[in-house]
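Re: the 267-residue chain
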Amino acid sequence: MIELRGALVCVTGGARGIGRATAAELIARGARVWIGDRDLPAAERTAAEIGATAYPLDVTDQNSFRAFLTAAPADGPIDMLVNNAGIQLMGGFADQDLGAVQRELAVNLGAVLTGVHLVLPGMRIRRHGHIVNVASMAGKITTPGIATYCASKFGVVAFSRALRAELAGSGVTVTTVMPAATHTELTSGVRLRLQPTLTPRQVAVAIADSARHTRGEVTVPRWLAPMGLAEELIPTPVLWWLKRFVGGAEYGGYDPARRQAYLDRIR
């Protein structure tokens, strides 16, 4: 268990959305929070508003990530890392730019590995630390039109499971948080039929709570936990129909015009 009062926590992608809400929730519980983000002006505005410390961070650049995690311990050793940064492209896989696909993997999966690799040695020496890897229900249930996003989040779930087995008894814990669709820029313009939707703060509360219970996997909302079995149990024709109906991007499930501002920013 990590006592958040007085703890030093680093949050990636902390300028906005789930990252911002998480930083604010952690600060409300007494933590000292550093937020890293490529958009430093936005991160600095957020930091000033919620009482965090902002730092420039490109999670796809290991030197940038190392600098972030090296600067933060000026406040003491890192007690908790929240790997939150993520992006989502939409559309038929073969129609997407290959470079953009590789970047999506680098941000959503590669950066998680980088962050853990950099922070873990110190935590193991101290036999104390908690890592939260923010995945998605897309890490359990695939959706047409976001194939690369699903692959990246499946990867985060699998990596975290293997890592937990490696770290058993080490004093370092790993929680994977898997939210349903959340109302942030990432889901702007997306048609979310029949899907539970969340506010960033609902996800933030689940992330902060994990410092206390350190359970391995947390779905938000919790009742979604059994839904990962749907891929195996529902007959394939029915499953495909459901995915089309719910709004896979390949089948017209989003509004490109409403999504353009988000795409311009992440590119």
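The mean pLDDT is 90.
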